[in-house]
Amino acid sequence: MSEAFKILCVDDEPDMEVLIRQKFRKEIRQGIYDIYFALNGSQALELLNEHQDIYLVLSDINMPIMDGLQLLNEIQKLDNHFIKVVMVSAYGDMQNIRTAMNRGAFDFINKPIDFDDFVLTVEKSKREIEMILQQYKTKKILEAVKDDLSAASEIQKALLPKLNGNFKNLDNLKVASYIKPARWGGGDFYDVFEIDKNRIGFIIADVSGKGISAAAFMLLSRTTVKIFSSIYKQPSEVLNAANNYLNIDNDNSMFVTLFYGVLNMDNNEFTYCNAGHNPPYLIHSDGLTVMEPTKNMALGVFENLPYSDIKISISKGDKVFLFTDGVSESMNEVNEEFGESRIEKSLSELHNESVMDIVSNMTRILEDYKGKAEQHDDITMLSFELI
Fold first, then answer.
1. DSSP labels for 38-95?
2. To pair with 95 at 20 to 30 A between CA atoms, which of 120, 144, 252, 311?
3. CB atoms within 10 A of CB 133
4. CA distances for 256 relative to 63, 162, 281, angstroms
5. Other C-beta atoms within 10 Å of 296: how many?
6. In terms of DSSP bridges, do strands 170-180 and 164-167 run parallel, antiparallel, or are they unpaired?
7. pLDDT at 140
8. Is the domain defined by 5-140 classed in CATH 3.90.930.50?
9. pLDDT at 144 over 90
């Protein structure tokens, strides 16, 4: 049985309690209503302070010690915004009824009381109060969920390395990164990590979808690739193993486009495997080129797919710029995409800058282009250079 709805009746006529208890005897017995009584406003306030889950007050206006209008004023001072007050007074007392309504009374009932109307008013008031209480509970739940999701988002961001300068103890490798989720639980991620003493791994990826499932698949994908990078040498071998693992129990049909490259610091060779991701740009001192895409499918789509590598040499002063489609598909206020051509134009103008300045300037350029338009997708950039 649900908890009884509590009502406070305030009237200086003792017979009123007898009449109301008689009218609602069935509902009281069934636990639908729990009715309290007070003879004046002062007693009513004591009961309201004692029982803070009384949300409906039926109050006479003309009473000794503290009348109904005074009681209405005092109730509005309480730290309980759910209480609804229904005034009860003689039909000829319309001036006081108007005053009560102007001061925030929810409704009124005329004396002598028509108990059919009285019941309808109580039921209407109960429905209104229950709706407000449910809205409040829902709001609190959503606020708690929002706080939890915000905390989860901060944890998720904390797991990604903050890169803006020399990578660890390597004076000849600079790395810069930027990520801005469209909302909590983004699906983009990146990572830069030491595989062994002379090889550095680079990952940038975009998981399908958003929210809890995308965030979970993002963490799984990142961890899986890093684990297999310590077992297999070639990026294609790593992604082949990661793809088969991510297909296990993939009931939600999640997938991830992912670029994984390995930079050999001994000979400056960069070997990469691109699983359906946007091809990065190789920035030279005299311009830039699109790094040849490997024709591999995203991870998590089908098991036992072949993955292939491409190997290039990176000279000192060269930079690699990696990004997710949140960059190229960023919309302005008239729904025009930023597009690859604007990326190429911007990078060409910035090609002499450091990777830190390239990423920060690309961020500014994107923000200027977007203007007040809503961000619909995660925006992620990762860039590194040999010096």
1. ESSHHHHHHHHHH-TTEEEEEEESS-SSS-HHHHHHHHHHSS-TT-EEEEEEETT-HH
2. 120
3. 13
4. 72, 22, 20
5. 23
6. antiparallel
7. 74
8. no
9. no
Name residue 231's amino acid: I
- The helix (run of H) or strand (run of E) holding residue 110 is strand 107-111
Strand pairing of 269-275 and 310-313?
Answer: antiparallel
- Is residue 160 pLDDT above 80, yes or no? no
Every domain of the chain and the residues it spans: 5-140, 160-386
Q: What class, spelled out in words, does domain 160-386 have in CATH?
A: alpha beta
Q: Which is it for strands 107-111 and 84-90: parallel, antiparallel or unpaired?
A: parallel
Q: Looking at the chain, how many residues does it have? A: 387
Portion of the chain with pLDDT greater than 90, in percent: 61
Cβ-in-10-Å burial (0-12, 13-18, 19+) of 171 comes to exposed
Alpha carbon 147 to chain centroid distance?
A: 8
